UniProtKB/TrEMBL annotation:
Lineage, broadest ranks: Bacteria, Candidatus Falkowiibacteriota
Residue ranges occupied by any Methionyl/Leucyl tRNA synthetase domain in the UniProt entry: 40-187
Keyword terms: Aminoacyl-tRNA synthetase, ATP-binding, Cytoplasm, Ligase, Nucleotide-binding, Protein biosynthesis
Protein name in the entry: Leucine--tRNA ligase
Binding-site positions, ATP: 799
EC number: 6.1.1.4
Known catalytic reactions: tRNA(Leu) + L-leucine + ATP = L-leucyl-tRNA(Leu) + AMP + diphosphate
Amino acid sequence: MNKYNHRDIEKKWQEFWEKEELDKALNFDKKPKFYGLIEFPYPSGEGLHVGHIRPDTAMDIICRKRRLQGYNVLYPIGWDAFGLPTENYAIKTGIHPTVVTKKNTDNIRRQLKNLGFSFDWSREINTTDPAYYKWTQWIFLQFLKRGLAYKKKMAINWCPSCKIGLANEEVVDGKCERCGTPVEKRDKEQWLLAITKYADRLDKDLDTVNFLEKIKTQQKNWIGRKEGINITYLIDGTKETITVFTTRPDTNYGATFVVLAPEHELAMKITTEDNKKTVAAYVNNASKKTEEERITEGRKKTGVFTGRFAINHLTGKKMPIWVSDFVLSGYGTGAVVGVPGHDIRDFEFAKEFGLEIIRVVVGKDYDTSPIARPEQVQEEEGRMVNSGILNGLEIHEATRKIMDYMVEKGWGKKVVTYHLRDWIFSRQHYWGEPIPVVFCEKCKNRKYNFIFIHGYDSTCKTPWKAWLKKELEKRGHAFFGPELPNTANPNVEEQANYILKNAKIDEDTIIIGHSLGGAVMMKILEKIKTKIARAVFLDAVLRPEFNHREIPEVIASSDWKFNFKKIKKAANEFVVLADKDFIIIPKDQSEELGKLFEARVIYVKPNHRHFSRAEIEPEVLKLFDDNGRVPVPEKDLPVELPKVEKYQPTDTGESPLAAISDWVNTKCPRCGGPARRETDTMPNWAGSSWYYLAYLMMEKNPKSEIRNPKQIKNSKFKIRNDEKNLKYLDLRFAGDQFKYWLPVDWYNGGMEHTTLHLLYSRFWHKFLFDLGLVPTSEPYAKRTSHGVILAEGGVKMSKSRPETIINPDDLVKRFGADALRVYEMFIGPFDQTVAWSMDGLAGAQRFLEKIWNFYGQVKLMDCDDGKKPCANAPAGLPQLLHKTVKKVGEDIEAMKFNTAISAMMIFMNFIGKHEAVPRAAAERFLIILAPFAPHLAEELWQKLCHKQSIFREKWPEYDPALAQDQTIKLVLQINGKVRDLVEAAADIGEEEAKELALASEKIKKWLVGKEVKKIIFVKGKLINIVI
RNA sequence: GGCUCAGUGGCGGAACUGGUAUACGCACAACACUUAAAAUGUUGCGUCCUAUGGGCAUGUGGGUUCGACUCCCACCUGAGCCACCA
C-alpha cells in the first residue's frame, strides 16, 4: 500500500460526503433527533485560527457519533456578521460591509470545509441577510407590542474622538476600545428591552436545564436575585418620606445616617436653603464625571449633607440625610441607610464625615469595642447587641424577626431586587439591524376622541374612569363615556346601537371596551365603515365564562358570535390591557384576544381591581401617549439598510444612518404624513438571540425533505410561498419544525458568552414561548463550554500580535485535517486553557500513519463475530477491544476527548504488534476512530472492500463482561504501602486473598517479629495488612 | 473586594466513588536498520541512597483515615468573570 498521504484522500471524501448528502438533517424524520449546536462564527478578516476550531471539532465528533448511533442529526452553521470590526474596516477602506462580509465568509467557509466538519450546509444562515433580519425586526416589534421594548433617556458612553456612542463592552478601563480616549457620559434616548421582567424566570428555570454548574452560578450571580426590605422613613420637618432598600434590616438599630444617590429625585427637593448651593454643585459635578475620573478617584468617599434628618423607627434617632455618588441610582431605591458598624462602605463614609458608629452584632471573638479600622467591620455571622427586641438573636433569626415586625408596623415592604438591568438595545452604528420604528410629529400631536364603553352593571363614573377622563382631557383629547341602557340586564346589540347612534366615530377615534364593553365594542366594529385609530380591550370579556361564578345576565346579553375578520379590519391597532390580579375574568381571554387581533398585550401592576380605583398607572397613559413612535407594519419588513457610500459617524452622536436623508425621511404608516425613521440599529446580540431557530426555518432543497403530508394541504404552508424571501419559513408558521427539533440537545460555547448571549437568547426564547411560537420554555437542554487555546509559550492569540496567530490552513496542508483534528482534541482537557505545540501535532500525525501502515499490511481473520476470540487471535484482544469501545464512547459523552484518543493509541499499540487480527476487531476500531479522523477512517473502510460509507455503519456495542478484567494484579500492602503484587481472579474472596498475601515472600519478610493488628480487604483491588 | 476554577516529571497531561501516582503523547538518550541522514522499530526515562532492596515526592503547612492527587482547615501562586449592588 502507498504511504499515508492526507492530500490524496481528504478532498476526495469531502466531495463524496457532500454528494451523498450524508450530513443533511431531515425535518420530521422517524429516527430520534439530535440537535448539536456551536456558536456561529463572526466572519473576521483574519479568518479562523486553531483556537476557533476546537469547539467545532468537539461537536463534530459528538454529531458523527450520534449519526453512527442512528440519530437524525442537525449540526448547522452560519454567520453572525453584523458588528464593529467589519464597519471599521469599511470606514477605513471604503469597501462596503456587504462586500467585506461576503469575502470573509467565503474564506472561513473554505477553511471549515477543509477540516471535514459535518455541517448541514444547506441551512447556512447569515444575520446580515435582509431575509434573516426581517425576523429579527419582527421579534423586536413583538417586544414593542407587549410593552417590553421602550425608549428612555439615559447616560451613554461617548467617545469624543470617534464621535460615537459606545456600548459597555466597547469601553475598556474607562477608555474607548478603539482609540483609547477617555469616555464621557452623555444623555441620549435609548431603546431598552425589559429583560428584568423575566429575571425571576431566568433565575428559577436554571434548575430545569443541564448546564455546567459554573455556568449556572455565573448566570445566577449576574441576575443577582436578592430578597430584602424597602423601609420608609419620615423626613423630620417635612411631609416627605424616604424609602431605602436593605438586605440587612437586622442591623437597623445601628443605622445612623441615610445616603441618596445624586440622581435621586429627593436630593434637591428636600435640601434646606442653607445647603442648596453645595448640594446642587455636588449633584451637577457627579453627572459630569467621566468613567476615568471615577476610577482614578478610587473608593474615596465624597458627599454633602442636605440639612435634613430621617427618623429611625426603632431608635427614634435623627439620622442625617446625605448625598453621595457611592450610592447607585439604578439599584434598589437609589437610597441606602447607613449602618457603619457592619458595612464597609458605610464605615468609610462615616469615618470620612465623622458620623456615629454603633456596633449591633458581635462575632465569634465577642469583641464589642468601638471600631477603629475597616477590617474590624465584621459580617456574616454573630449575635445581636444594642438592638432592643433583637438582642441575643443570631443574625439570620434577627433578620426574619425584624422584617416581619417592620411589615406588620407598616414601616416596610418585603421586596426582591435584581442586579440584572434592562438591556440597552440601541447602537449608533451603521452595520446593524435597523430598528423598525418611525417617528411622526403629526401622530405625536394628534388629538383623539375616546369612547369609553363600560361593563355589565356598571357606570362611567367610577374613580378610575374619572381619573382617565381627567388625564386624557388634560392632554387635549376628547372623552365620551355615556351611561349605557339597561346596564343591570344588558343587551350587547342594543348597547352597541346606542353608541353608534350617539357617538361620532371616525379615523381619530379610540374605543375602549371595558369588561362586557369589550363585546359591545366588537359588535360596533363589525358594523362601522370607517377604520378607527385604535381599539382597546380593557379586562374585556370574549366569552361569558368566568372563574368562581356564573353571571346569567351576561350569558344572556349576547349571541357571543363575532366576525373577527371584519373586526380586525375596523381598527388600525389593537391593544389588550389587563389587570394581572383580577380573578373573575380568566386571563386566557385576554391572551386569546391578543392573538386574534395581533394586539399589544399589556398587564398592569397588581391591585387595580378591574380598573376601579383611582390610581395613577403610567403604563396605561403610555398607551395614549407614545411620543409619535409608530412601529413599521409587519408587512413592510424588512426595513433594509440603505446602500450608501459613507459609514462615517456623525458629529451629533447619532448613527451614520441619520445623514442619509433619502432613507430617513419616509411616510408615517399610521397617518400617511411625513415621518423620520429611527436611525439607531440593534446590537450584535440581537441576531444571535434566535439564530438556532433560523436554522429550523431554512427552506432549501425541499426535494430531500420528508414532509408531513398533512402540511402540504395546510394553508399555512401556502403563505410561505407568498413571502418575498423564500429562504426562511414564516416564523409564525414554523411551529412544526420547532416542535420536532427543539430544544437544542447540546450547545457548546465559550464562557465569555454566559452572561450576555446565553442569557439574552434564553430571554428571547421565553418571550417567544409566551407568544406560543416555540414549544419549550428553555432553548437549550444542555450547555457545556470549552477552554481557550493559547499560542506557543502561553500568550493569547491576538490580532495586535499577528505572529501569535496560528492559521489552520498551512497545518491542514502539511499535516492534514485529520491530524489537526486529533491533535486539537488530544492537546489537553477540553474545558481547560491549553497552549499550542507544533511537536504535539507531529505526534498526532504519527499516530494516524501508524494506523494507515498497520491496515495496509495486516492479515484479517474472518473467524469470529467479535465477541468470541479466534483460536489463533492475539490473547487479550477481545478484552482490550471492548474496553476501548466502552471508554471511547463514554469519554466522548463526557467531552474527555484527550483520554479517548489515549485509549485508541493503547489499542493501536497493542494490535500493531500483530500480523493478523480478527476482521471484526479491525473494523470496530475504525468505526470508533471515524468521528475523530473521518477521512482516514473512510479511506481505510473502503480499502477493506466496503461499498458504503463508514458513517452508515452502527456504533459498536461492547460486552460489559469482556470490558471488565478477568484477572487483576492484587495489591499487597503493609500499613498502606505497596510491598507486592500478585495475579488473582477479579472476584477473589477475602480468605483466599489473605492466604495469597501471607504466602508472598516479600510480605513474609515484613511480618517477621511483627504482630498483625488488622487486615483490610478491598474487593477487586487490594489487601492491606496493618502491623 | 466578591464569585468560579486550577496548581502532579524537562513539557502537554492521566488516575473510577479515598485503594499500584506519573497512563497516553511530546522532548531526550542508547541500540537496531542505513554508506550516511531522515523515517521507522526496540529499550530506558520523577528524585535520592549504603541499590535483587529501600527512603522521599502530586503548590505550602496541618488534620481525618488502615490508606489522601482525591475529603476537611489555613495559607501561597496563577487564570477567568464581575466589581462602591446596600
